[in-house]
């Protein structure tokens, strides 16, 4: 007999794109109500008749009646695990999420669920709220042009490496002290909950890394600000006189494949089983590392990424990721105190 957990979190951001055949209605709710729980139970038994749902547990409050995050253990009597993996991609699960504005994260209920040892993050639009290359482009008046390419690349419509080189080329002439300026003038802001999440994970003994398709100066600043252990990003060439950027990216580009490789290298160095690794990101270039990790989370991600990632979470705060590990609100408060 195999056990799995389903964590249901009420989305605090606008509804995701509906399925190809839109459901007849959507339901707004303040909590994960009994109606929502019953609908999920019916979904599981409708898709696979021999799945059994055990006790529901509130996470965000002490009471099921007022919880925005809850979990339930799902028992697969066949011990195959095939059913729950198939359920992740089942169209009726996507329809359920859309109708009730709920994110559902399915995981094997093993010892590794709570005991994470390495968490790697994307930087732009994940740990920080901005796409840094777009902000750099503003210094030479091409922000809109670069932002359009960035958006397309993050949706997976363009090859990331080629798009980064083409965008970087437009940065020729940007002052070389631009990263200091962005940090000091308040342009770059941390995603709500980033500090709390990293503090909690450090208390749990996790190693933390930022693996970014952005740029090393800001990745190092993020590492220092959040107390991370590793920072890998791209390097932009500086002109011979040291006054400006040339628009050339030096060395290996941190693309999707490089992120996955770095994840495995850090895990090996730290002696961490990949089942205890978590990868968090928002763009198409984060999908490979999410699949390499024991658990991948698409945070406020592009639709294509939400569709393909191991799990997705649409929330105003990164600290809600701790609910996916099974921690209650009281435990989260203790960890961030």
From TrEMBL:
List, alphabetically, the InterPro entries matched: HAD-like_SerB, HAD-like_sf, HAD_sf, PSP
Query: Kind of enzyme, top EC level?
Result: hydrolase
Keywords, alphabetical: Amino-acid biosynthesis, Hydrolase, Magnesium, Metal-binding, Serine biosynthesis
Q: Which cellular component, as a GO term, is one annotated location?
A: cytoplasm
Tell me the Gene Ontology biological-process terms attached to this UniProt entry.
L-serine biosynthetic process
Tell me which domain of life the UniProt entry assigns to the organism this sequence originates from: Eukaryota
Query: What Pfam families does the record tag this protein with?
Result: Hydrolase
Q: Which CDD domains does the entry mention?
A: HAD_PSP
The prosthetic group or cofactor this protein requires is:
Mg(2+)
Q: What is its EC number?
A: 3.1.3.3
Q: SUPFAM superfamilies annotated for this entry?
A: HAD-like
Q: List the active-site residues.
A: 122, 124
Q: Where are the transmembrane segments?
A: none
Any one GO MF term held by the record is: L-phosphoserine phosphatase activity
Q: In which pathway does it act?
A: Amino-acid biosynthesis; L-serine biosynthesis; L-serine from 3-phospho-D-glycerate: step 3/3
Return the similarity comment. Answer: Belongs to the HAD-like hydrolase superfamily. SerB family.
List the PANTHER family hit by this protein, alphabetically: PHOSPHOSERINE PHOSPHATASE
Would you tell me the protein name for this molecule? phosphoserine phosphatase
- The organism is Arthrobotrys oligospora (strain ATCC 24927 / CBS 115.81 / DSM 1491) (Nematode-trapping fungus)
């Amino acid at each position: 007999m195999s056990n799995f957990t389903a964590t249901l979190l009420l989305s605090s951001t606008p509804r995701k794109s509906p399925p190809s055949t839109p459901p007849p209605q959507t339901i707004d709710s303040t909590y994960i109500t009994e109606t929502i729980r019953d609908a999920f139970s019916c979904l599981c038994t409708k898709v696979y008749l021999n799945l059994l749902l055990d006790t529901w547990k509130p996470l965000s409050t002490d009471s099921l009646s007022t919880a925005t995050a809850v979990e339930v253990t799902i028992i697969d009597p066949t011990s195959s695990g095939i059913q729950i993996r198939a359920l992740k991609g089942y169209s009726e699960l996507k329809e359920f999420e859309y109708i009730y504005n709920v994110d559902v994260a399915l995981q094997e209920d093993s010892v590794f669920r709570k005991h994470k040892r390495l968490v790697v993050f994307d930087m732009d639009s994940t740990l920080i709220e901005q796409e840094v290359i777009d902000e750099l482009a503003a210094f030479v008046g091409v922000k809109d042009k670069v932002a359009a390419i960035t958006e397309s690349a993050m949706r997976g419509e363009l090859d990331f490496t080629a798009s980064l080189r083409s965008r970087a080329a437009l940065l020729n002439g940007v002052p070389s002290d631009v990263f200091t300026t962005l940090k000091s003038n308040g342009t770059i802001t941390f995603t709500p909950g980033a500090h709390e999440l990293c503090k909690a994970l450090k208390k749990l003994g996790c190693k933390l890394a930022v693996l970014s398709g952005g740029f090393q100066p800001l990745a190092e600043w993020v590492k220092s600000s959040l107390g991370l252990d590793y920072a890998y990003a791209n390097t932009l060439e500086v002109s011979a006189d040291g006054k400006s950027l040339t628009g050339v990216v030096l060395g290996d580009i941190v693309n999707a494949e490089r992120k996955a490789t770095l994840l495995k290298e850090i895990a090996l160095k730290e002696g961490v089983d990949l089942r205890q690794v978590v990868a968090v990101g928002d763009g198409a270039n984060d999908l490979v590392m999410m699949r390499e990790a024991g658990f991948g989370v698409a945070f406020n991600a592009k639709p294509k990424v939400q569709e393909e990632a191991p799990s997705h979470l649409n929330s105003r705060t990164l600290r809600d990721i701790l609910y996916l590990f099974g921690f209650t609100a009281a435990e989260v408060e203790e960890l961030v105190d």
